[in-house]
Write a sequence for this structure.
């Protein structure tokens, strides 16, 4: 998982701006009937120091494998300490 800073409904990945939200892909298969597929998210920090997770769309639930959960946790800690 490659989490980067957000800007509007896009996030910065290198020099390329990518859209946040659903990709329409199911890279690990469909978990159940309510699974809407892969979701590009971003983690940022605002001027007041609040950590903001942006999903680009309303989200009911997310499924994370252990590696993704660790990546999000590390990114949250990095943003909080920055």
């Amino acid at each position: 998982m490659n989490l980067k800073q957000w800007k509007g409904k896009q996030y910065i990945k290198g020099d390329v701006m990518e859209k946040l939200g659903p990709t329409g892909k199911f890279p690990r298969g469909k978990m159940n009937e309510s699974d809407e597929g892969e979701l590009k998210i971003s983690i940022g920090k605002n001027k007041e120091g609040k950590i903001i997770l942006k999903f680009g769309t309303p989200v009911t639930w997310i499924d994370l494998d252990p590696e993704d959960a660790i990546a999000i946790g590390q990114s949250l800690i990095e943003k909080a300490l920055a």
User: Anything to note?
Assistant: The chain has one helix and seven strands. The chain has a mean pLDDT of 81. Residues 10 and 19 are 4 Å apart (CA to CA).
